[in-house]
Amino acid sequence: MAKPKKAEQATTVVYCGPSIPGVAKQYTAYPTALAEAIVKQPAMEGLVVPLEQLPEAMKNLRSGTGHISRLYRLVQVKH
Fold first, then answer.
1. Element (DSSP H or E) covering residue 61
2. Any idea of the CA torsion for 43, 48, 52, 57, to the nearest 10 degrees?
């Protein structure tokens, strides 16, 4: 008898980009990525991080350094 498959747990992701009315709020957890917004602005995909990586992402945003900070500024300019 085969063992039942283990249910996959959805990874909680957090949006670290600038708040965009009607789309996403900064530091909000989402059960799935912001698919529609990411299709319209692919740079947003880099601003959706697993919850475990949130402290490092916030550190980079505060210091203004790193890849996530660069993506943040890119998305901010376009909105």
1. helix 54-63
2. 50
Mean pLDDT of 38-63: 90
Whole-model pTM over 0.70: no
C-alpha distance from residue 58 to each of 4, 13, 25, 40 (Å): 39, 14, 14, 24
Read off φ and ψ for residue 30, nearest 5 degrees.
-130, 140
- The sign of the dihedral angle between the CA atoms of 61, 64, 66, 67 is positive
Mean pLDDT of 52-74: 93
Q: Counting beta carbons within 10 angstroms of the beta carbon of residue 6, is it exposed (0 to 12), middle (13 to 18) or buried (19 or more)?
A: exposed
Residue 59: CB atoms within 10 A of its CB come to 13
